[in-house]
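[READ THE FOLD]
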Amino acid sequence: MTTEQKTKTSFGILIALSLSHFFNDTLQAIITAVYPLLKSDLLLSFRQIGYITLFYQASASVFQPILGLFLDKRPKSYFLMVGMCCTFIGLCTLAYSDSFAMTLASVSLVGIGSSVLHPEASRLTSIASGGKRGLAQSVFQVGGNAGCAVGPLLAALFIAPYGRQNIALVALIAIIGICVIIPIKRWYSGILKSSDGKKSAQIAAQNRPLSRGYTIFAICILLVLIFSKYFYMASLSSYYTFYVIERFGVSVQTSQIMLFVFLAATAIGTLIGGPLGDRIGRKYVIWISILGASPFALLMPGSSLTSTIILSFMVGLMISSAFPAILIYAQILLPNHLGLVSGLFFGFAFGIAGISSAVLGYMVDSIGLEHVFRICSFIPLLGLTTCMLPNIEKGKRRDN
């Protein structure tokens, strides 16, 4: 039995963790939202835009599984604040960056902030879940997806009309994030100082549901699914604004609002995916999510402006519901390493997004945006690999 199954669900802490995720990802989303400004201010190519995303995502991915494993064994109550401070400093530096090299350093620091928050906050979410792990992960994830949606909107309202220096003004949101983290730190400090603090802070030993070899195989399938999701998402989050500007002639502000519509749909989908996985099983949610996004993705290239907005909303709604289900499925496979699993999957997602953006940037420079979008529309079909996952939840109640 896990620690989270022994305690009641701490909804106040879950909401605080979701808010911290919201503020973190709002600030993280500023980076991709200001790509058009960076491109024009620093005279960058699409290839350089891809490299910016690569450096950002790489710094946000490499440290996540390492930190997750470290905090599984040596939990600390102050790490979330460290991550938020890194994000704040990185964005303030980005606001006044005057070279490509300085820009890479700035976004890397922001990425490190993200690499601290995601595995640790996700691990604390499991501890505070009271056994309702799908619901808890959705509450946590929806904060991040909502932040990803709000970031471009803030860029459209407060940065694009006034200049890149206003990134430093928006970065002050990190101060609010630190205030939200304070009660989480107090709650977690209390757990660590309790008589059975070590047992409370960590997850009690459990047996894996599958053999070692089959567990590795299932994890690899889940990583393929993460690849399909985030490779396709990278094409939209990094280049969607450029695509709609080029194809439909809309303004930078309008393109960022369209990006907001897509990212808002991902927040809604995430909120649905976790509880649905608790109810019907994670494997079925993964089927519905990734493979279900395929028809909308295939129809989007070549559609009208109105149809593109509608289809992007549907793609975001469908494909985003997969991540909570994939993460909980992986945690069930490796129940003794929640931080490591969270770090691995968040880190892999960030890494794939970064590498994909660099590859896509090279492709855009070579063959053009519209051709790249047509190619990427086939990626969600990798959801067919879900058929190889074992039904580890069959015949028993889901997690609670």
Remarks:
- The mean pLDDT is 83.
